[in-house]
Specification:
The strands form 9 sheets. A 6-stranded mixed beta sheet has the order 12-11-6-7-8-13, sandwiched between helices. Strands 16, 17, 20, 21, 23 and 24 form a 6-stranded antiparallel beta sheet that branches. A 5-stranded mixed beta sheet has the order 3-2-1-4-5, sandwiched between helices. Helices cover about 15% and strands about 30% of the residues. The protein has 4 domains: about 220 residues, Nucleotidyltransferase, domain 5, CATH 3.30.420; about 60 residues, Actin, Chain A, domain 4 (Alpha-Beta Complex); about 100 residues, Immunoglobulin-like (Sandwich), CATH 2.60.40; about 110 residues, Immunoglobulin-like.
């Protein structure tokens, strides 16, 4: 796999070398803009011939991961350009996400908010990313500013006015001097005038800083504005782009008042994007979404829940091996749904033949009749069990079966256990899912064999796993060959401890997940609460010819209650007093804790890296009621931290409570 970072002026290609270390090749895109003209820029990265051709350099794996700016990039055009260059595009990733991967800011179980400062040749892009423990990266907001290298070169060209010979391009000379200066204190370049005479130009660090001082100030103001903007609090700043490699950039951001207590990282910022693209191979289930975090959605917003139309007044009948429940007819289905439940009169008693016809027995409002069916106002009449089926078969939806209900007439043998009718990839039913038309008749055009309904077997899925996302679960699995849909059942376990379910979550449920929706969303999102849940997933696939029916099951343990703490310091006449407030939204048994005070720039990771100032005894922490402890804080100079750790060394792994700070930068108390 190769990583390709296309900028406006430069392009970089990264590969994993034989020793496992990444190697990066940078190419100047003369006469082409890598962002606006990727079709012209990509061939420049691989030589005169497009990548993947016989004349190109040998590339054992043409699969590529592409980076795209968070603002201003066009993914479709970039994909087409890469495919025309002979590359197999595995994924297109926003540049800020690649930067976060380069710095290791994305990992399972990590919950943080970072600000990515990417200052390249044309723009300064500031992007706030929210990283959640389930390997989801959310692009909260992005802002672009015309503060790139071109603006630096223009300011330097103005400062060089009067020093350049006639016929020398000032912007070109300023760019060469700026790049030659790099991280040194002085640079020297040779230029030619209009007559071909060579002249020597010099530039020192002090002169460069004077020329670009206004631009540097505007850059710091833009960064400070993002750090103080409303929304999630940023705890880390990541630097990327060639201009962020200039000396002093990291220290300038750390000195901002809005960045006090934050972590600022700058390691190979000019290669951050392409190295992050190569690191993507370690994150096969990474999920990237845009915009601020939405409010919790209903489980059935995008997936069909079969038992929604069931009569909830009747108690559910638990069957050790229930028949799969078919999908309701879609609104555009021309055939009205016919329920198999016993017809009743208006008073609720069972109807008889003397009660007379009713306009309709279906609970749903009337819909237009099919072209060859009876008129809309014609009453429905019972059909004898031995009657011939109608010319147009009716799609039936079984209601809740009662013990006293006689079995419905079955014109054909019942389907085998765990079978259902086929469904097309678009999600519309391709045939009746319950006992329907007589043998030899289908709801589709019989002349088209591709539309004939076929029985599908319920087969187990592979690699079933679930990741916690608060009240939701991200369910992932590997689809068997030929499966286009899967049936998912879940049941909340009682007496499992942990936080309770969110309001309105049923104890158990079932839905049908389409493969195209699963692949688009990167998994199946279920709102099941925070307690323990048993999942059962079975894929619906064509009969493979072997006996492999069944389902895959997974028990997801309850999520540990979360206890957040936040220290604060205030001054009194007798010295400084520190207070730590503990809160839990669900209530739990708080274990014994130790509050550690540590000096230095780095946050302590254990009680051995600081001094224990206070011990919190084990006690019950009610839901929503804060517990505040106070203690004197010694007088110190320089940065210091207040961090809580379990008093028992084994409690970090044995306790069912998750102790975490409200924000990492809040732990820094000076």
């Amino acid at each position: 796999m190769i990583g390709i970072d296309l900028g406006h002026r430069f392009g970089r290609v990264g590969r994993i070398g034989p020793d496992g270390a990444p190697t990066v090749t940078a190419t100047a895109l003369d006469g082409a803009d890598g962002v606006l003209e990727p079709r012209r820029a990509l061939p420049l990265l691989f030589g005169p011939a497009p990548a993947g051709t016989a004349a190109a350099a040998a590339e054992p794996d043409p699969q590529a991961v592409l980076g795209i700016p968070a603002s201003g990039g066009r993914e479709d055009e970039l994909r087409r350009a890469a495919e025309s260059a002979g590359l197999d595009v595995a994924r297109v990733v926003p540049d800020p996400v690649a930067v976060a991967l380069h710095y290791g800011a994305v990992d399972e179980g990590v919950d943080r908010t970072v600000l990515v400062c990417d200052q390249g040749a044309t723009t300064l892009e500031l992007t706030v990313l929210a990283v959640t423990p389930d390997l989801t990266v959310r692009l909260v907001r992005t802002s672009g500013h015309r503060l790139g290298g071109d603006d630096w070169d223009a300011a330097l060209a103005d400062a060089l006015a009067g020093r350049l010979p006639d016929g020398v391009d000032p912007l070109r000379a300023a760019e060469r001097l700026r790049r030659a200066l790099g991280t040194s204190d002085e640079a020297e370049e040779t230029v030619e005038d209009a007559s071909g005479v060579r002249h020597r130009l010099t530039l020192d660090r002090a002169g460069f800083e004077r020329a670009v001082a206004p631009l540097r100030q505007r850059t710091l103001e833009a960064v400070a504005e993002q750090l103080t903007a409303a929304g999630p609090a940023v705890d880390t700043v990541l630097l990327a782009g060639g201009l962020c490699a200039t000396p002093g950039r990291r220290a300038e951001i750390e000195d901002l008042p809005a960045a006090q207590g934050l972590t600022v990282r700058s390691h190979l910022p000019e290669l951050a994007v392409v190295r992050g693209l190569l690191a993507l191979r370690d994150f096969p289930v990474l999920r990237i979404v845009d915009g601020p975090a939405p409010s919790p959605a209903r489980t059935d917003d995008r997936y069909f829940v079969p038992d929604q139309a069931a009569d909830r007044s009747d108690p559910p009948v638990r069957d050790p091996d229930p028949e799969p429940r078919p999908r309701r007819p879609l609104p555009e289905d021309p055939e009205p749904a016919t329920h198999r439940a016993t017809p009743t009169t208006a008073a609720g008693a069972p109807r008889t033949a003397t009660d007379g016809p009713r306009p309709t027995d279906a609970p749903s409002p009337p819909r237009p009749s099919p072209p060859h069916g009876p008129p809309l106002d014609e009453p429905s009449r019972p059909q004898a069990p031995d009657a011939e089926p109608a010319a147009e078969p009716t799609v039936t939806v079984p209601g809740p079966r009662r013990a006293a209900e006689p079995p419905p007439p079955a014109p054909e043998p019942p389907p085998a256990p765990h079978t259902t009718r086929a469904a097309d990839p678009a999600g519309s039913p391709s045939g009746p899912a319950a006992p329907g038309p007589a043998p030899g008749t289908t709801a589709q055009d019989p002349a088209d064999p591709s539309t004939d309904p076929r029985d599908h077997l319920a087969v187990p899925v592979g690699q079933l796993q679930a990741l916690r996302r608060g009240d939701h679960l991200l369910v992932l699995w590997a689809w068997p060959d030929g499966a286009l849909s899967a049936r998912v059942r879940w049941r909340r376990e009682t007496g499992s401890g942990g936080a309770g379910p969110s309001g309105g979550v049923p104890r158990e449920g079932e839905l049908l997940c389409r493969r195209r929706v699963y692949e688009h969303d990167g998994g199946l999102d279920l709102a099941v609460g925070r307690g323990a849940v048993t999942l059962t997933v079975e894929a619906l696939a064509a009969a493979p010819g072997t006996d492999c029916e069944g389902a895959s099951s997974l028990l997801v343990p309850a999520e540990a209650p979360v206890v957040e703490y936040e220290p604060s310091v205030r001054r009194r006449l007798k010295g400084r007093i520190a207070s730590v407030a503990f809160t839990s939204p669900t209530g739990c048994d708080l274990p014994a804790l130790r509050i550690v005070h540590s000096l230095g720039r780095f946050r302590p990771t254990s009680t051995a890296e600081g001094t224990v100032l206070h011990e919190v005894p084990a006690q019950r922490l009610p839901a929503g009621t804060p517990l505040t402890v106070e203690f004197p804080l010694p007088a110190t100079r320089g940065p210091s931290w207040l961090v809580c750790f379990p008093a028992d060394a084994n409690a970090a792994t044995d306790t069912p409570v998750d102790i975490r700070p409200t924000a990492l930068h809040r732990l820094r108390v000076t």
